[in-house]
Design goal:
Elements (H helix, E strand, L loop, with lengths): L6 H14 L2 H10 L10 H11 L2 H6 L8 H14 L12 H4 L1 H16 L2
Length: 118
């Protein structure tokens, strides 16, 4: 069995930290990516989180994350999944980062994750 390298964990924790940022800083981060199309879509925030979230069981089994943080990470995943439902397409416009309460809820969860890791 090949051991998981630490790089995906670092990328995942960065994704959580970006989810914890205020809307202004999230917009700046999205702008720094140089993705095609204007305006950028906020879904990149969820995509980066999801890439690491899929590896969560391995992060925990390797002892890199405590199992008790899983509940908060599951809540972030559930919130993003709900936001991804067809009727919620408006939440992915970058303007929604500053105006939609669902993003503030995700930020609060992400901040709780970061606090629990200290």
């Amino acid at each position: 069995m090949t051991e998981l390298p630490v790089r995906p964990l670092v990328a995942f924790l960065r994704a959580v930290a970006i989810l914890a940022l205020d809307a202004r800083h999230q917009l700046a981060w999205l702008g720094s990516l140089g993705l095609p199309g204007e305006p950028a879509l906020a879904d990149e925030l969820a995509l980066e989180f999801d890439a690491g979230y899929r590896l969560l069981p391995q992060f925990i089994s390797n002892g890199w994350l405590q199992a008790d943080v899983r509940e908060l990470l599951d809540a972030i995943d559930a919130a993003l999944a709900t936001m991804s439902e067809k009727e919620n397409r408006d939440v992915w416009a970058v303007e929604a980062l500053a105006t939609d309460q669902r993003w503030e809820d995700v930020r609060g969860l992400a901040r709780s994750v970061l606090t629990s890791l200290q």
